[in-house]
Write a structure and sequence with these properties.
disordered N terminus; alpha+beta; globular; 249 residues; 11 strands
Length: 249
């Protein structure tokens, strides 16, 4: 029989039980904010019953914790220990109440279309309405790397509430990438949508809304492309949302 390692002198089973209980509560909060148990289970590719058990207080495996943190859009460190920010990768938000003074302004193409309204293709130069000037600090490091690929438009509808509200301005990095996880603007059969994307192990892309009343959709990765849609690729990714502009009432 293998010899058991002694527990550390300061180890107390009740401390571990409390940590598991607190972690389960953080998971409950994160799952609720990410659209509910069913949607998170789909994103994390975890059985719904198993997820329910974790929320009820069953200890999580490391692999499950990583998958759930990613599916909920929360920090793994926060979910595991409660330390650090809950959502370090949440979209930065600026408001109309903020003042930027005489900061360095940079040009960003603005498209006079609204995500969720059909318009054809973003790449059509006729779709461009104007060029707006935005403080460089608002776009952060993304402008320094992909400045020429950043565009702007407005969102409409409630499918991404509470993360994005109808009327919010969106700054979008249109640089193609094979890392599809986060909030993106895409064109589906000519209709522009704002959705949360995540790649699944089976070679499909999960398209979800943060508003739980909208059901998720799963499409084959080989039916998707960046830029303009075509007959073989009815879904086209326009870009990743990097900043949200929220107009104060």
């Amino acid at each position: 029989m293998p010899e058991q390692l002694p527990e550390p002198e300061d180890f107390h089973p009740e401390d571990r039980d409390l940590a598991v209980k607190e972690r389960a509560e953080r998971l409950r909060v994160a799952v609720k904010g990410a659209g509910g148990n069913a949607q998170v289970a789909i994103r994390a590719q975890i059985n719904l019953g198993t997820l329910n058990n974790y929320i009820a207080g069953r200890d999580m495996k490391a692999s499950a914790m990583i998958a759930l943190a990613k599916a909920c859009g929360v920090s793994l460190d926060w979910l595991a220990t409660g330390e650090g920010p809950e959502k370090p990768n949440e979209i930065p938000t600026i408001t109309s109440a903020q003042s930027f003074g005489d900061q360095d302004l940079v040009p960003v193409r603005y498209y006079g279309v609204r995500a969720s309204a059909g318009f054809g293709t973003l790449c059509d130069t006729e779709a461009a309405k104007d060029v707006i000037l935005i403080p460089r600090s608002v776009l952060g490091a993304a402008f320094g790397v992909h400045g020429n690929n950043i565009v702007s438009m407005h969102a409409t509808g409630d499918s991404m509430t509470p993360t994005i509200s109808s009327g919010d301005g969106l700054f979008i990095d249109t640089t193609p990438s094979d890392k599809l996880f986060g909030i993106y603007v895409l064109s589906v059969y000519g209709t522009v949508l704002v959705k949360r994307l995540s790649v699944r192990a089976g070679g499909t892309l999960l398209i979800t809304s943060d508003n739980p009343i909208y059901p998720p959709e799963e499409v084959p990765l080989d039916s998707i492309r960046w830029g303009q849609a075509d007959e073989d690729h009815p879904t086209a990714i326009i870009g990743r949302v990097i900043v949200r502009f929220h107009s104060m009432p």
